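> example.struct
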């Protein structure tokens, strides 16, 4: 009969990966090449820590224009929970810092706190590319994104010192 064994590794490093996630319900997708994940055991805390990153990614949301993305993150894992201590997400038109939790035993339950600096002109090109108006300025968003079975909720506060919209 086969013999099973258990071993504990101090560290695992996976690089040159490629992650593709497709949510057919919304629909939205992310294509994340150049993925790198490092996981290490932290005996004094009784958990695992790690980092994850990618660059050269593409996000597509419904029928809007695709946009580029890169990400660096730091996390801790004590199953069934995965806690992101810090996520730096840079996309066309936004620089965001997130932290949050993913409950692996209650998939897709996850919630993130978000702070974003937004380029309104770049966002207009992504989400309203075919519409005949222009928009410029900078904005900030401070809020939460909750992804749960049966839905998603984005809520928070938008602030902008000056935004310009020109119609026609």
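> example.seq
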């Amino acid at each position: 009969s086969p013999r099973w064994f258990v071993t504990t590794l101090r560290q695992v490093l996976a690089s040159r990966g490629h992650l593709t996630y497709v949510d057919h319900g919304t629909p939205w997708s992310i294509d994340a090449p150049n993925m790198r994940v490092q996981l290490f055991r932290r005996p004094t805390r009784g958990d695992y820590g790690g980092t994850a990153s990618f660059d050269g990614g593409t996000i597509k949301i419904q029928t809007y224009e695709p946009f580029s993305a890169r990400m660096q993150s730091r996390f801790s894992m004590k199953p069934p929970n995965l806690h992101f201590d810090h996520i730096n997400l840079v996309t066309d038109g936004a620089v965001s810092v997130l932290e949050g939790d993913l409950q692996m035993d209650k998939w897709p339950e996850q919630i993130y706190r978000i702070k974003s600096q937004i380029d309104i002109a770049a966002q207009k090109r992504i989400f309203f590319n075919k519409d005949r108006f222009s928009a410029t300025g900078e904005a900030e968003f401070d809020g939460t994104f909750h992804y749960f079975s049966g839905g998603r909720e984005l809520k928070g506060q938008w602030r902008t010192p000056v935004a310009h919209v020109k119609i026609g």
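> remarks
The chain has a mean pLDDT of 94.
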